[in-house]
Amino acid sequence: MSFTLHKGRAPLLVSMPHLGTVIPEELQGNYVPRALATEDTDWHLDQLYDFVADLGGSLLTPQVSRYVIDLNRPPDDAPMYPGASNTELCPTRFFTGDPLYQPGAEPDPAERLRRREAYWQPYHQALAAELQRLQALHGHVLLWDAHSIRSQIPWLFEGRLPDLNFGTADGSSADASIAAAVIQVCAGQSAVSHVLNGRFKGGYITRRYGAPAQGVHAVQLEMCQSLYMQEHSPYAFDADRAAAIRPLLRSLLDTALSSCARLYG
Fold it and tell me: Which of 26, 56, 242, 244 has its CA 20 to 30 A from that of 190?
């Protein structure tokens, strides 16, 4: 199995598509040695979001690294952010822009298709099925797509990111009241900065599955890793920083869930 799904009973599914760190042994020789450290992982998010089970939510996490296949990209590999630096369905570059693969060892179309069938499709089938199950139970569901990233990556964006980057695909993936409630929580504190639909508006998962008219509301949160971990090798989890930011994260999910429920009486 290339993913793990913990099933809950609340109308909440938290997806962490870039948590995985596994590069299958048979592929490792194709990569430059640096790639085997999987530096662009969304590190430790399962540990940071350790309260999801307490909320009754479902949690979907992959095993394979985004260097093998990016579960938050469309199957046709269309760019998510036209005009900006983009990573592909089967990425060929680090976030620094440097090549991931040995010269000539990049995956060809047949290999990309194999990876899509082996890893991408099972993850998305599980995601869609779990959304359907929770919606059948409650009549609505909140999909929270959880991500983290280094606060400064010149190849992807200028300057330093806001601490919390919320994406609702410019309002199309979740009811406006849910986004407004989340932003109100952020506005009530001054410890961390935030933005809605800035550089990161939501990737494929948010855009594909968010369907407010059908009762599925999707929100992506891309947060700076500096809030809870060491941003550079060895990418260590920082328990003190995590303890400081975790209550805000829980409040954000609580608020989003409550706002979602109010839409349905």
Answer: 56
Instruction: Specify the number of domains making up the chain.
Output: 1
* 44-79: pLDDT as tens digits: 999 999 999 999 999 999 999 999 999 999 998 777
Residue 50 belongs to domain spanning: 3-262
187-230 pLDDT, tens digit per residue, is 999 999 999 999 899 999 999 999 999 999 999 999 999 999 99
Sign, CA dihedral 67-116-140-6, equals: negative
Average pLDDT over every residue of 87-95: 92
Q: Give 90's contacts (C-beta < 8 A, 6+ positions apart).
A: 68, 69, 70, 107, 111, 112, 115
Contacts of residue 140, defined as CB under 8 A and 6 or more positions apart, other chains included, come to 11, 215, 216, 217, 260, 261, 263, 264
Predicted model pTM: 0.95
Return the ∠ at Cα 70 (arms to 68 and 76), rounded to 5°.
110
Q: Are 225 and 169 in contact (CB under 8 A)?
A: no
Looking up residue 37, the CATH number of its domain turns out to be: 3.40.630.40
